[in-house]
Amino acid sequence: MIDPRDVMKVDDENWEAFKQKALKDELFYNGPGDLLDTPEGRAKFCRLNKTSIFNKQDPEFPAYKIWVYNLQGQGIIIKKLSRVDHAVMENIEYDADGNEVSRSYEPA
């Protein structure tokens, strides 16, 4: 598996080639410390990935997926099973700089 720090070192110009060569999934979530776990990483993900919906199996809860709704250059929403209450999904909205804007919950 790729080290999340390697993702942060890739130049913007080489992003697409890096994704094709090193990653099988466009959502780079492998737990705490990954690309989507820092404001800088979320900003880079938001800026470089096209407007789309991404998903990947949650490493902490394999029966569930983590969903990322990306609006290129404007913000992202990360939706995953709450780590506190497993009966709800946690929706966290971030701005284009990767900073949290709002947090909401819905039934899982």
Can you tell me about this structure?
The chain is 22% helix and 33% strand. It is built from 3 helices and 5 strands, in the order αααβββββ. It has helices at residues 4-9, 15-22, 39-48; strands at residues 52-57, 65-71, 75-81, 88-95, 100-107. A 5-stranded antiparallel β-sheet has the order 1-2-3-4-5, covered by helices on one side. The longest helix is centred in the middle third of the chain and has 10 residues, at 39-48. It is globular, with a radius of gyration of 13 Å. It starts with a helix and ends with a strand. The relative contact order is 0.15.
Give a nutshell description of this structure.
By secondary structure, this protein is α+β, with helices and mostly antiparallel strands.
